[in-house]
Amino acid sequence: VVEPLIFLPSLEWILVNIIKTSDAVLPYALDYGRVVFLLAPLGFFLVSGLVPVLRVENRANLGMWGEISAACLNSIGDFVYMGVFGIGIRGAAMATVTSQYTIGCLILIFYMRKNSTSEIKPDFTTFEKQMPEPLPSISVPEDTVDAVVETAPTPPPSRIRWEYVQGILKGGVGVYIAILAPTMCAILANIQ
């Protein structure tokens, strides 16, 4: 979410002043960059962030095939968007985004399987075992103990409600996709 906010407003300045893009290439670089910086961050995160975890699961071959499949889908998407639909540079950017999302979703489906060792299931039993034992009690008059117990605040729960965290994450991805779909339609509608 932060990447488009940083790079989209300053994209032209970055291309002209830092990368030293020529005037002939600048319009094409802007078209490609706007689409990629707006739509691709989540897709790139899914692929580049989850492929190393496949290696940890001793499934490095799936990560490699995912990368190869993304490259092949990108090439096919270039042909379809640029050759068939005649979209041009925006089509190349959309092919890149589409291939990254497709492979990223396939990798996510792999993690959602029940036999995946990387399935996210927080376990706090080891944390609770490391908690220190309560201090030995000190003899205090009983009236004082009752007064302290009645006025003591309730301690916070020791466990995180993970169903809320998962709901927030799913909602965040849903919001991102809800922004992605109309943006793709707007880009397609503005094609000359």
From TrEMBL:
Membrane spanning residue stretches: 35-56, 68-87, 93-112, 168-191
Gene Ontology cellular component terms for the protein in this record: plasma membrane
Membrane topology note: Multi-pass membrane protein
Superkingdom to which the source organism belongs: Eukaryota
Record's subcellular location: Cell membrane
Main location: membrane
InterPro entries assigned: MATE_MepA_subfamily
UniProt KW keywords: Cell membrane, Membrane, Transmembrane, Transmembrane helix
Keyword Membrane in annotation: yes
Listed name of the protein: Multi antimicrobial extrusion protein
Record organism: Kipferlia bialata
